[in-house]
């Protein structure tokens, strides 16, 4: 279904590429520096990926909190192991400098 939708939309959409339309856009100003060539700093993307990973992993805490009484001691211990692994990943990212902006 998704492929069919993309195919039909590629047939129906207008296509009018021109140089000004294909230029990178930065807050109404002409692109300058590294962004003008299409290069962006890698630490920005690493931080964004870390944010998504840790947000998704912490979403697993909500169902655990809802069924805390039903899962018993085993589920309680397993969730603390999960939290410990999150902290180890966070410490690793911190020590590797993935959370630093200035270099």
Structural class: mainly alpha
SS strand fraction: under 5%
Overall geometric form: flat
Arithmetic mean pLDDT: 81
N- and C-termini, Cα separation: 46 Å
Order of helices and strands: HHHHH
Radius of gyration: 22 Å
Major sheet: none
Number of helices: 5
Poorly predicted runs are none
Helical content band: 55-70%
* Total DSSP E strands: 0
Transmembrane segments: 41-66, 73-95
Pfam families: Oxidored_q4
Subcellular location: Cell membrane; Membrane
Protein name: NADH-quinone oxidoreductase subunit
Model description:
The structure is a single chain. By secondary structure, the protein is mainly alpha-helical. It is 65% helix and 0% strand. The N and C termini lie far apart (46 Å). It is a multi-pass membrane protein. Its main location: membrane. It is an enzyme of class 7 (translocase). One of its GO terms (molecular function) is oxidoreductase activity.
């Amino acid at each position: 279904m998704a492929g069919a939708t993309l195919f039909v939309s590629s047939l129906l959409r207008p296509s009018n590429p021109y140089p000004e339309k294909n230029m990178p856009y930065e807050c109404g100003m002409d692109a300058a520096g590294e962004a003008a060539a299409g290069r962006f700093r890698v630490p920005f993307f690493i931080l964004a990926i870390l944010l998504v990973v840790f947000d998704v992993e912490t979403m697993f805490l909500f169902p655990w909190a809802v069924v805390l009484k039903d899962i018993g001691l085993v589920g309680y211990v397993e969730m603390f192991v999960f939290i410990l692994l999150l902290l180890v990943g966070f410490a690793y990212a911190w020590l590797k400098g993935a959370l630093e902006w200035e270099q």
